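Lab notebook page, bench 4
Experiment: in silico fold of construct C2
Operator: M.H.
Input chain length: 239 residues
Purpose: comparison with the prior construct
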Amino acid sequence: MGSSCVWYVMVTAALSYTISRMEESSVTLHRLTWSFLWSVFWLIQISVCISRVFIATHFPHQVILGVIGGMLVAEAFEHTPGVHMASLSVYLKTNVFLFLFALGFYLLLRLFGIDLLWSVPIAKKWCANPDWIHIDSTPFAGLVRNLGVLFGLGFAINSEMFLRSCQGENGTKPSFRLLCALTSLTTMQLYRFIKIPTHAEPLFYLLSFCKSASIPLMVVALIPYCVHMLMRPGDKKTK
């Protein structure tokens, strides 16, 4: 779902950028660009889906629904400009609301004898190696990650670094955007080496929240600001 959402945004953004700069007569070039980008998109998604099924992480219907769900999420948020213009207080209130709602819904289901973690003991019982059942695959871990991303995004969008870089004079330059994208992709690969200890659940959830919050802060605010500072013309010395 994450893969399809991210790549859908990149493909549609690239198509909208190229189409706006193509002449009306270049219909063939537009069709070739459209076919190439969407072919790359589906090639990546099929590869991800096959790999997830091959290592027995998901069932086939889950990866298919994940791809569709990711595309729907990307399309929905593309038409929701409030996400990019909301104040920090709105992000914080939304974060608190989602946490309390999820916690309240979980406790309500427990009163009716419904456990959202019902699959965890079954998986530990029948899995060839119970150590393969990680805490980061539980619903609470997913909730903490999502809340962390939302929290970090709110701070990033309302930061001075974001206003100076992405919404400044360099924000519309293709070179600025390309350099930010390449730097962000490289930085995200480095995040994979950050391992969170799982021996204590409260510590794991806290560190997972901080790690998730740091990702949008890095991608949306810090990296664009650093690129902006590098691209800023130096002060000319007057004789």
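Observations: Confidence is low (pLDDT under 50) at residues 235-239. The radius of gyration is 21 Å.
Next step: discuss at group meeting.
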